[in-house]
Amino acid sequence: MKGLEFIFLAVGSVLGAYLRYKITESPLIFNTIPVNVLIVNILGAFILGAFVILSQHWHLDGRYSLFAAVGFCGSLTTMSAFALDSSNILENNHYVAFTINIFANVGLSILALIGGKSLMSAIINN
Predict the structure, then answer these.
(1) pTM reported for the whole predicted model
(2) I need a labelling partner for 33 at 20 to 30 A (CA). Which of 4, 75, 91, 123 fits?
(3) Domain edges within the chain
């Protein structure tokens, strides 16, 4: 990795981590489901979907992928917090909430990624 690539990765990572921190610093709980982690995972997936289309359309250099996809979205989204939250819900025997949390994080993140790609494709093709 070259110096400039490292800077792109580092700046994206810091920005993504900061945004995740700001979104998750005040826990939002709906029933027993932690909504903050759901929000960052959906938001990150949407941004990544939009970025993929922009990157292809504008033929962006790989450094921008280091910034946006790996750095920013990688630091913004959080599989480990999702896994910990799911484990905690399960340990408290909240089986319905556990199932909802898993389907919401995975399903809505996939839908958000598709939505980001679709929105950006629609904007570009107009």
Answers:
(1) 0.91
(2) 75
(3) 3-124
